[in-house]
Design brief:
By secondary structure, this protein is mainly alpha-helical. It is about 65% helix and about 0% strand. Helix 4 packs antiparallel against helix 5.
Length: about 425
């Protein structure tokens, strides 16, 4: 194998705070995605109102919109950018070829994401990250100031883009939606209110799940285009690249004042923006209707600032506890982020779809959020158990072997034992 493909980051080189942040982000991603797994995201207001838990469901739904929706994919995007900087800086120091490693890493991530998207769950984010991540090397020579300006401009860009959509009265993802509807006509997925319960109907199973996946990826990318996710995610990538290039995660004590400012301003702006986002989200109006621009505005000032406030707060806890924070419990989950993300999909399908236990379709967040929290507790326990015996999570091991083109030792060495490996 080409020696320029060096080796992945070792345990001694890892910064635990980054794994803690990944674990925390995974919790938020699950709390967001479970609304889709359980079908609650799709059902009508009348259906929700008929549930016995309607009042508590409404409170939890608003809470999810304010505190969860969008904030944790933003945090993951930030961490993705930091990861790129780590690959770049580390491999340049040891004489490796960082871009070759980075693109190999993205290639295999895109393959994993494609399998996840087309064969498991239409809500996949891995393929999107891999494709968009290919643009990151274009910014590697930018100054720190330029990176921050570009990140802020990209995060705010959806407002300008949506103004253009309103003026021209267009929906950029509409063509994908029409393609998806054409597939649904052939597979028999209904277009009425029964659409929301298609995956959860009694007697349903493998056929319904496969039919749903045939058009699901088109609906997914129509949504990503319509919500201008390209700009938002790339902006967070660049912000993460800036943080990673400055190696802030390795010297948090020196950035305490900055972290406090990010926390304070992030909560002040982000909470207000997220409350506005939640309020206007429920009116059902969206771009290209001009009134939908309010949603875009509050999303822009609510999501990224609050996500950054979460990250800054965790980092401040970490500094105060001198690395011995209780949040360290999440580190193994974050070290196995890819495995745990895919596991959440498998468990979500198994528990909520009719192909499994069929719990979804007639259940509100009052019931399915505790189930999601139970899943995450299992993931904490599983991650701790696994990493006490192995060096990598199962999917992380496969991904790293493919990326670096070499055999990596999976099993941990026990004291007094010698295990040969390449």
């Amino acid at each position: 194998m080409n020696k320029l493909l060096t080796a992945p980051v070792t345990l001694s080189e890892r910064f635990v705070i980054l794994d803690v942040l990944r674990g925390f982000a995974l919790l938020g991603v699950l709390l967001d995605n479970v609304f889709s797994f359980a079908g609650f995201e799709y059902v009508s207001f009348a259906h929700r109102e008929a549930l016995s838990t309607f009042v508590s469901d409404a409170i939890l739904t608003i809470g999810e919109l304010v505190f969860v929706r969008g904030k944790f994919y933003s945090l993951f995007s930030l961490l993705f950018g930091i990861g790129f900087a780590i690959i770049l800086v580390r491999n340049e120091k040891i004489g490796g070829n960082p871009l070759r490693i980075f693109y190999r890493r993205l290639l295999f991530l895109s393959l994993i994401g494609a399998v996840h998207l087309f064969f498991l769950w239409e809500g996949d984010i891995l393929l999107f990250y891999a494709l968009l991540g290919c643009l990151l090397p274009l910014f590697r020579r930018c100054s720190d100031k330029k990176l921050l300006i570009l990140a802020a401009a990209l995060i705010g860009a959806p407002l300008l883009v949506d103004v253009i959509k309103v003026v021209l009265d267009i929906q950029v993802g509409a063509f994908l939606g029409r393609m998806a509807q054409g597939i649904d006509e052939k597979t028999g997925i209904p277009f009425d209110e029964n659409f929301a319960l298609y995956l959860y109907q009694k007697g349903g199973g493998w056929l319904e799940w496969m039919n749903w996946q045939k058009s699901g990826f088109l609906y997914r990318y129509a949504y990503l285009l319509e919500t201008n996710r390209i700009f938002k995610v790339l902006g967070m990538f660049l912000l993460g690249f800036y943080v990673g290039r400055k190696m802030m995660y390795s010297q948090l004590e020196q950035y305490t004042n900055l972290l406090k400012k990010v926390r304070n301003w992030g909560f002040a702006i982000g909470l207000g923006g997220s409350l506005g986002m939640a309020f206007f989200e429920m009116d059902g109006i969206s771009v290209p209707d001009a009134a939908g621009l309010v949603d875009t505005l509050f999303y822009a000032i609510g999501v990224a600032p609050l996500g950054l406030a979460y990250a800054a707060t965790l980092c401040l806890f970490w500094v105060k506890a001198d690395g011995n924070s209780r949040w360290k419990l999440l580190a193994p989950v974050g070290r196995m982020a890819l495995t745990n993300y895919l596991m959440q999909t498998i468990l979500g399908i198994l528990l909520f779809y009719s192909v499994g236990f069929g719990l979804g379709g007639n259940m509100g967040p009052t019931k399915f959020i505790p189930i999601a929290l139970g899943i995450f507790i299992v993931q904490i326990l599983y991650s701790h158990w696994w990493l006490s015996r192995f060096n990598y999570g199962p999917m992380e091991w496969i991904w790293r072997q493919l990326t670096y083109g070499r055999r990596l030792r999976l099993f941990r060495e026990r004291p007094g034992c010698s295990v040969s490996g390449k």
